[in-house]
Amino acid sequence: MAKPRINAGFRRETEARLRRIARVAEVFVDGDAFKAFPRNPEQNAGDEYSVHDDKFITVKQQLFKLKRVEVGDIGVVTWRRFGDGEADQCLPVDNHPLKATKGNHPISKAMAEAFAGGTAVQELEWRGCPLLSVCAPIRDSLDDVVGVVEIFASLIPEQLKVDALDY
Amino acid sequence: MAERTPSVWCADLLVNVDPCAVGTDCTVQEDGYASGNEIWDAKTSGIRLAGAANETVMFQMVVEEGAGELQGMSLPDVDGVELSLGANIPVPIKPILTDRDRRSEIKSASGAQMRKSMKGTLLDDPIVPVDLADCADSIAGIVKMAPKVPGRHRSTYTVELHIPKGFPAGQKSGAIVVTLKGQEQRFPLSLQVYDFELPDRATCMADINNYSRVMAFPGGVDADTDCDEYIAVMNQYFRLAREHRAMFHLLPYSHSGAIARGYAPILEGRGKKRRITDWTSFDRHWSALLDGTAYKGCRFGEYPVEYLYMPTNLNWPAYFENYGREGYDLEFRNIHREMARHFSEKGWTHTRMEVFFNHKVRRKFYPWDMDEIYYERDNEATIKFAKMALEAVADYPNVKFINRIDSSWIFGDSARSEIGDLVQLWVVNRNSIAPRPDEVALLRNKGQEVWFYGGPGGLPAPDRLDSLRWPWLAWGRDTDGFCWWNGEGFGSWDQVDRGANHCLYPGDRFGIQGAVPSLRMKVLLRAMQEHAYLTLLTERTGSRQAGEKIIADTIGCRGREDWFERKRVAEGSGADIQTTSRTTKPWNTASRSAYATAARAAARAIEQV
To answer: Which of A41, B61, B186, B357 could form a cystine bridge with B370, CB 3.0-4.6 A?
Structure first.
């Protein structure tokens, strides 16, 4: 099947928009609440999985607000380091190509850059549709990077939107 | 020397006939099953069946390789009884690959040992309706479109005889006439019609649970769920369930809170300005089910769907962004009040509108378990929302808004908590309910409904007793129903789950708009009719005593307590939660003939009252 054509101008605009939202996220997502919300940081799945709901809600509500910063289709997820070189998709707002299921996922190059304190762009694909994603660090009050926030969007929104909560 | 297998023979619906095993080894039953069994005698080619008016009696007809393709079937001598035929389709069963698969197998096979021949990976399950007016071509078309089965030795059909309402009681004689290789063969039929009639409405709820966009439709997960064609297909699923005295159930949102298009009314605004602006799509989706017209012509009644999940979740209709603040509660209450008003104005007052939160903290979208709550601290969220929902719709008491919870780990404690007063429908893991007879009685005495849930029954099992037992358990435990989790499941035509889920199949492969049933659905229909026997007997005698005595004398359970397992504790975790399949309670060890004897005895007892 032929690869879908991406409009270069729309891609540029989308990247700029995602970068702006990621910057807002970097400033406003509460890293202290983020790093402390899992009751047992060693756990990322299973029936016994549990969170401090006050901290969870604090971050989740901030992530929801990010969806309103600018007009346009976006999805939001966050990651924390888990295990050896892997990441736990721990606080999704939207479904992501890696989906919010049990288990952990390899840290991508862009996520690694964000864990190192930078902001990086990556391309993803979901159900045959190209997505663009910007990863940015989540910092706590000590200025340590405690996680990554990923802002992503469809590059062909008329084919697939990532925001399924737009109601 | 082994007996020769007849070229055409009949089997009880419960018996799993292997499409590929050679000769007499085609069932895991007593030797010579094909020569004679509970419904069939090869010496006379006779078939024995029994049922009440408004009951469907069923059996399997097996055509061995070499006997030719079935070209026709009729029932010329028994006027009024409606004959229908379905082709049983062998499908590839998911192999056992992991320890988890193995544990799941123990559960779905109910602990029964399978003979080597039943370990085949191709077994009958879906049933595709055959057009009897054009039988040969219809079957040829089905064969062409069905999965190919290397090494197949026989074709099996499900034969249904529906005894209509008002049909006179007594012993009826006739024949089922089958055409093979151009020749007609008569199979003498002895049909005992009991002197009573089954009600249209199921006597307990048989709930077939499903999720959101389960219906097969072009576009898959990206399908346009708002078009007329999609809605027509969706309604066919609901009709199919009613034709089996069951109810199709469709949770309209995912773990994230995403709602398929058309499954919820359109909202606008935030805070005190949040309101419903457009009911058009919602009404198109659900009105035919809510007023009953979607069931027009259904054998077991044209009444509205009994239960409907609301789109309510932690991010709809109120934005979770505002949870904990005044605006969140206001949005939640206002929209639910608007919904209740709309349902009242439409006259949709027969269906129970379920407020149900399927969120699990392990899915990480939201902070609490509200489905299968694991930690008691998470009960608080359920209590808060259950109160809000009931208060919001209080001005419309004619609309049946209810709170629903699915409970497992801490069912016993939850039932005795404040939730016990706030939740009207309790759907409890079948193993978690087993040690808790007192909590079931407590909730029912408060007027709450109790169902129990689990998988519909193992496909590779030698028989389908595990599927049959559900309505019997519902009666024995004196609950209001049960829930099969779930309808279409997560398998496919190319690899069917082993039975822990998946009891309907998308019909598009055969050009059918909607689903086709499985053999386990037919067993469900049979068992639901048997539940109706027990219920009728209870109604006519004024107590459960007569039914309990019959069960004690046949199946072996001595009273309600014997259907439970008081004080057994959960083992394992998650999907491996305590398995009742290993119990030695009589309901789990009784043979299929014990259940059949119990059903016949109940029927005779009704006739004598």
So the answer is: B357
